[in-house]
Specification:
Structural class: alpha/beta
Strand content: 15-25%
Helix content: 25-40%
CATH topology of the largest domain: Rossmann fold
Number of helices: 9
Number of domains: 2
Largest sheet: 6 strands, mixed
Distance between the termini: 40 Å
Shape: globular
Order of helices and strands: EEHEHEHEHEHEHEHEHHE
Radius of gyration: 18 Å
Length: about 300
Amino acid sequence: MGHEAVASSVLEAVGHTPLVRLRRPAPGDGAAVLVKLEGANPTGSYKDRMARAIIDGARRRGELAPGRRVVEFTGGSTGSSLAFVCAITGHPLSLVTSDAFSPEKLRTMRAFGADLTVVPSDGGRITPDLFVRMRAEVDRIVADDGAFWTDQFHNADALVGYAELGREILAQAPTVDVFCAAVGTAGMLAGVAEVLHGVGATRVVALEPATSAVLTTGTAGPHRVEGTATGIVPPLLRPGTHDDARAVSEDAARELATRLAREEGVFVGTSSALNVAGALELAREVGPGRTVVTVAADTGLKYLAGDLFG
């Protein structure tokens, strides 16, 4: 769909997001840092791409009959995005979430009509045990209601949605020497990496908070970077998907979120700031004349109720 066309549905408004070059935070003697602003999607998150692809794929194969209930466990934007897509496509939706995640996200899920099961957390922290308990609630809903579980951690349809993100980056950026992003389900990194690796020697770096550095140290831990680091190596992060991984300071990312808003006008949440922090480190390392690309996963509007912005 061209930018001048009238969309027949809000689903057609997913994607087509801007890619911008950072100025003030970027190292003067380092690579250019480009950020894909996925907050421009209809619900303010790149998860709109994934949700649309997963529901489309299941409907196309006949796995998801008209009117059948959908279920997923989610700590962040996946829930809002699935609720948005299910509202348009006419599927009732049950979401299992937790008080560890921002109240704005839970309210957004409800605003689109989703039914929520809220699992209590350990003092607001995201722990590996929390996801185990959330998954148990999903199993109960599948058994009780015959719901279709979208299974975002294993669902390869997500890669279809994120491959489009990769193609957009290639169309917008003159070159992509390094691509980096934090992983939760790893669907975005895997979908983009497949496209970038397919056309050249782009280095793909998986990022994670140092407070739960499973990819780099094998050690999970509690953290507060929503949408990332679930305590496992995600199944979609298959061998060859990324070239290396690195841990990024959660505190540095939280501080950077404020700087990005005030110095650059880029208004993002914790995981996006972690992505940019990783990209800035890589830009210093690879040096001038190169290009590092990362993704701002969503908008800072989703984090105003917390303490991110003071």
